[in-house]
Task: inverse folding
């Protein structure tokens, strides 16, 4: 089994979403000790934002790209990582009701027409199917199953568009609502992780 873990927190140290993602990965590896792990920490190795230069390079045929354009779209490593993974684990904090910019940049990097998705006469077709996705969500407040939770619908939509429909969310909410609420939220998330089917 090949596991790709994406840490999306802007924090290099002390991130609860990273800690929970680590716990999910540890649970999976305990069940399958020979599992390979590839870790991508977006705080330490951020993806560039999608901008005019990147779009121009992407829409220029590879054989016609300048050296600068080729370097700008040299994100094939991120695509190769997601293509080869059988399991994807993400640690995702909530920032201002959404996903971190670092994660959005990674999603933009792996969303490549004719590579990870394509359009057909019947509509879009994701090309990254057959993967299990675990998402550890951490929030300062409580947003699960409310209109203020934009993260889950967005991530479900993006992953399904790319062909990944087997997505499981682990929640740790209320982390900014006092030490007792934070401790209980993390304990509950820990129990949920321990019960994950590997």
Result:
């Amino acid at each position: 089994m090949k596991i790709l873990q994406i840490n999306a927190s802007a924090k290099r140290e002390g991130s609860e979403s990273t800690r929970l993602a680590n716990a999910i990965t540890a649970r999976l590896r305990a069940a399958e000790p020979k599992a390979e792990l590839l870790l991508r920490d977006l705080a330490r190795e951020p993806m560039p934002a999608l901008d005019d230069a990147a779009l121009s390079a992407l829409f220029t045929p590879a054989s016609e790209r300048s050296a600068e354009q080729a370097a700008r779209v040299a994100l094939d490593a991120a695509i190769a990582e997601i293509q080869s993974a059988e399991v994807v684990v993400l640690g995702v904090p909530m920032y201002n009701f959404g996903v971190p910019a670092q994660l959005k940049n990674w999603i933009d990097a792996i969303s490549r027409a004719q590579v990870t998705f394509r359009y057909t006469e019947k509509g879009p077709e994701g090309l990254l199917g057959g993967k299990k996705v675990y998402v550890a969500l951490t929030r300062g407040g409580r947003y699960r199953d409310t209109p203020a939770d934009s993260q889950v619908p967005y991530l479900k939509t993006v992953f399904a568009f790319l062909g990944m429909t087997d997505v499981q969310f682990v929640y740790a909410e209320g982390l900014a609502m006092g030490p007792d609420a934070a401790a209980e939220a993390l304990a509950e998330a820990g129990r949920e992780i321990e019960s994950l089917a590997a």
